[in-house]
Design goal:
- Helix 2 packs antiparallel against helix 3.
- It contains 3 helices and no strands.
- The relative contact order is 0.17.
- By secondary structure, the protein is mostly helical.
- Helices cover about 85% and strands about 0% of the residues.
Length: about 90
């Protein structure tokens, strides 16, 4: 059951990335760009979670890499929000 939930979370993040990216290309709003990058990093984070917990649960520990990608996602969105202060 956990594998299904992890996979659905990864799929949702990637879907949000695609939708935000398409919206940014259509409108040119920079906040959509930063949000798309954030969800891209969250998508990578969720894919690493699937690999870490489902595919290779005992062979490799990707906990640090998942934290780095989660931090990068939050920093990207924070930078985008600060950059778009007006």
């Amino acid at each position: 059951m956990a594998a299904l939930i992890y996979s659905l979370c990864a799929l949702t993040s990637i879907t949000c990335l695609v939708l935000l990216w398409r919206s940014w290309r259509a409108s040119g709003a920079r906040l959509l760009f930063w949000s798309a990058l954030c969800f891209g990093a969250l998508g990578v984070n969720n894919v690493l979670l699937v690999v870490d917990r489902v595919v290779l649960p005992t062979q490799v520990d990707l906990h640090l890499w998942r934290l780095v990608w989660a931090l990068a996602a939050v920093l990207l969105l924070l930078f985008g929000l600060v950059w778009e202060e007006d």
